[in-house]
Amino acid sequence: MSVPLNYALALAAVLFVTGLAGVILRRNILIIFMSIELMLNATNLNLVAFSRYFGNVNGQIFVFFVLVVAAAEAAVGLAIIVSLVRHYKDSLNGDEFNLLKG
Amino acid sequence: MNAPTAVFIVLAAVAVVSSLNVILRRNPVHSAIFLALTILCLAGEFVLLNAEFIAATEVIVYAGAIIVLFLFTMMLLDIRGGMRTRQFQNQFGLAAPIAVLLVALLGAAVGAINISGLPAAALSTLQAAQLGSVQNLGQELYSNFLLPFELASLVLTVGLIGAIGLAGHGAEDREEQVRIEEALEFDTKVRAKEGGHLEPEEELVPAGGHHA
C-alpha cells in the first residue's frame, strides 16, 4: 500500500494527545471544545487508515457517522455555551461554571 | 520512499504544527483558523488513504459548518474577557507524567501493529481507488447501514431542536410569556362578561396594565 499504516496511526496518536492536552490544560471553554473536535478527527484518521489497510469500506462509514455526531455535538455544545455565558455568568473560563458542584 | 508517503509526511507536519497552535493560541479566533488548517491537512491525508468522499465531507462539515459555527459563537460572545485572563490550568505537574505515559503507551501500540499478524488486504490500484468512491459508500450506506443512516438524520434533527431550544430561551422570551399570560387573562375576563358572569361595574383592563 502507498502510505504505511504506522505513519497514519502515529499522526492520529499525536493529534489525539494534542487535543487531550488542550482539554486538560486550557481554561477557555471555546478552545476546550475545539480540542474535542481535534480528538474526534484523530479517531477519524485511525478509522480511515484501518479501512484502507483492510480494504473494507466500513471504517469510512463509521467516519461518516462520527461526522454526524460531531455536527450535532457542536451545535448543542455551542448553544449551551451561548446560553451559559448569557444567562449564568459572563465568562469563558470553564472553572467558573460549577452549577453541578455538590 | 514513494511520493504519497512524502506528501503524507509534509501534510502530517503541517497538521501537527497547526494543531499545537489550536491549543496554544491566546485568541480563540486564531485557534479556529488553525483548526480549519488542521482539518484541511487531514482531508488531504484522507485522499492519500483512498477516502475521497470522506475527505470532501470532512471539508464541508468541519471547515464549512462547524468552524463557521465556532466563529459565529465568538461573534455573539465577548471573547476579549477570556483573552485577558490566564490561559492555562495549574496542573502541569500532574499532566506531564500522564502525557508521557500516554505517549509511551500509544507509541508501543503503534510500533507493535506490524507484528500482530494482521495482514494488509492486497488491493489492486483500481480496487484501492474504488474503495472510498461515492458509489461504493452509497451502496453500503443504503443497504447494510440503512437504519443507522436514517437514525443519523434523527440525531441531527434532535441536535437542531436542542440547539434552538437552548440558545433561544432568553429574557425577551420571559417578557413575551408574561405578555401572553396577561392577554389570556384579559381574554378570559371578556369571555366571562359575555357569558354574564362578570360584575357590570368591573373594569375591563388588562391584568398587568398598571406596570406595562
Question: What is the assembly state of the chains in this entry?
Answer: heterodimer
Number of strands of chain A: 0
Low-confidence stretches of chain A: none
- Order of H and E elements of chain B: HHHHHHHHH
Spans of at least 5 consecutive residues with low confidence of chain B: none
User: Which architecture of the domain at 1-80 in chain B would the CATH scheme give at its second level?
Assistant: Up-down Bundle
Keywords:
heterodimer; A: 102 residues; mainly alpha; Helix Hairpins; 3 helices; 75% helix; B: 212 residues; Four Helix Bundle (Hemerythrin (Met), subunit A); 9 helices
Question: What topology does this entry show?
Answer:
The complex is a heterodimer of chains A (102) and B (212).
Chain A: H1 5-25, H2 29-54, H3 58-87
Chain B: H1 3-24, H2 28-48, H3 52-76, H4 80-84, H5 92-112, H6 125-131, H7 134-141, H8 146-168, H9 171-194
Helix pairs in contact in B: 1-2, 2-3
Characterization of this structure:
The complex is a heterodimer of chains A (102) and B (212). Helix content of chain A is 75%, strand content 0%. With 102 residues, chain A is mostly helical. Chain A has one domain: Helix Hairpins. In chain A, helix 1 packs antiparallel against helix 2 and helix 2 packs antiparallel against helix 3. Chain A is elongated and about 50 Å long. Chain A starts with a helix and ends in a 15-residue tail after the last helix. The mean pLDDT of chain A is 88. With 212 residues, chain B is mainly α. Chain B has a domain of 80 residues: Up-down Bundle (Four Helix Bundle (Hemerythrin (Met), subunit A)). Helices cover 74% and strands 0% of the residues of chain B. In chain B, helix 1 packs antiparallel against helix 2 and helix 2 runs antiparallel to helix 3. The radius of gyration of chain B is 29 Å and the shape is extended. The mean pLDDT of chain B is 82. Chains A and B meet through helix 1, helix 2 and helix 3 of A and helix 1, helix 2, helix 3, helix 5 and helix 6 of B.
